[in-house]
Amino acid sequence: MNPELEKQLEALIGKISNKEDFYIVRDQLLKRGIESLLKAEMTAHLGYEKGSSKTQVNQRNGFSEKTIKTQQGEQRIKIPRDREGSFNPVIVPKHQSISQELEDCIQLLYAKGMSNSDIIDFIESTYGVEYSTSQVSIITNQLLEDIQAWQNRPLEDIYPIIWIDAIHYKIRQDNKVISKACMIVLRVNTEGQQDILSMAIVETETASSWMAILEDLRTRGIKDIFFLCSDNLPGLDKAIEAIYPNSIRQICIVHQIRNSMKYVSFKDRRKVMADIKSIYKADNEHFALEALKIFKENWGNKYHSAVQSWEKNWDNLTAFLNYPKEIRKLIYTTNIIESFNASLRKCTKNKKVFPNDNAALKSIYLAAQNIRKKWRKTRFNWAQIYNQLYICFPGRL
Q: What distance in Å separates the CA atoms of residue 397 and residue 390, rounded to the nearest whole number?
C-alpha cells in the first residue's frame, strides 16, 4: 500500500470510538474510493498522469458533483471532467444515480417474489435509500429487453428429449383477475445438459397454443426432437405431428395413474394400483398388453373410464417400453419439469396476483434464472444414453 494512503487510513481508523464514528469513516472511505477510481479512469481516458505536460489537445477540466445511491445510502461525489466532454466513467455512468450492486439487489428481491412495496421497505431499512414503486418498476423493466432477446435466441438443430408443461398464475386483465398459463419447455441437449428452451404466457393451455410454441421452436432452429414428454392434453398429438412428425410422444405415466385412480373407491385402490403397475413395469409392450387384458377383465365393468383411457392412449403411454431402461427413466414421466415448476412456485408464491403479463413474466424469468444456477452440468449417465440414442435413431443423432 502507498505509505501516504496507509497514513491516511490509520488516521481515519483512529477517529473511531463508537458505532456512529464507524459509519462516518465507512462513508468517507467509500466516497474516497469511488473518487479515486474515477480519477484513475480519467487518467486512462486522457492517456497521461495529472501534472504531466499539457500539450495534449484534451485536458482535465475540474469536477462536477453528483449524488449517487449506493448500498451505504446516498453519496455526494466529485466526478472529473475533460474539456471535450468525452469522458464517460464506468463505475458511475452518465445519467445514472444508482450503483449496479443496488440494482442487482432489487432484481434479486423481485425474483424471490417480493412485491414492489416490500422491496422499497427492505432497501430503505437496509441501505437507507428511498425508492418509489415506479422507480423499482423502471429497474425491473430493464429485464424485458433481456427476456425478449432470450425468447428469440437461436437454438440447436437437435434435442433428444424435451418436456412441456404449464404453470398457472393469477393475472389482472381488463380490471378482472383471471388464471393464465405460463407454457414452459425444458430440454436435454446432445451433451446431456438440461435447460429451459422457452417460456410464454397465454390465456389458456390448449393444443393450438402448444402448436404455436412448437412452431416458434422450429423457427428458432430446432429441426428434430426424438421424444416429447407431456401430460394427456387433448389434441396435442395432432399439434406435435403438424410440426415435428418424427417425434415420439410419451404421456406421463404418473399423470395417467392419477387420472385412473381419481374415481376408484378406497377399498379397491390397492388392487387396482397393483394391476396398473403390472402394465407400466412390464419388460416390453407384449407383456404390457397381457397386463392390460388382466386389468380390463378385473375392472372393465366397474371402472370402465379408467380402462378405456389406457386403451385410447396406449401408443403414447407405452412408447417408453421400446427403449432401454436408462432412456425409459428419463421419458416415462414429466417429473423433471414438474420439479422445476415446483421450484418456480416457491419463488413466486408471494405474488398472489400479478398486475399484468409482463410483471408475471419478469418474476418467472428471474426465478428461473436463479433455479438454473443450481442445476448440475449433467444429471444422467449420459455417455451410455447417448450411445443408446445413437443406435435407436440411426442417422438422426
A: 6
86 vs 101: CA distance, rounded Å: 25
Q: What is the pLDDT of residues 225-280, one digit of tens each?
A: 999 999 999 899 999 999 999 999 999 999 999 999 998 999 999 999 999 999 99
pTM: 0.71
For residues 385 and 97, give the distance between their C-alpha atoms in angstroms, rounded to a whole number. 52
**Rounded-to-integer distance, Cα 166 and Cα 163, Å:** 10
Helix, strand, coil percentages, rounded to 5, for the chain: 50, 20, 30
Question: Phi first, then psi: what are they for 48, rounded to 5°?
Answer: -155, 150
Looking at residue 63, its amino acid is: F
Q: In angstroms, what CA-CA distances link 259 with 254, 277, 280, 307?
A: 9, 14, 15, 11
Torsion-angle region of residue 204: left (phi > 0), alpha (psi -120 to 50) or beta? beta
Q: What is the CA radius of gyration of the chain?
A: 30
> Residue 127: phi, psi to the nearest 5?
-110, -5
How far apart (Å, rounded) are the C-alpha atoms in residues 46 and 94? 18
Between CA 356 and CA 88 the distance in angstroms is 36
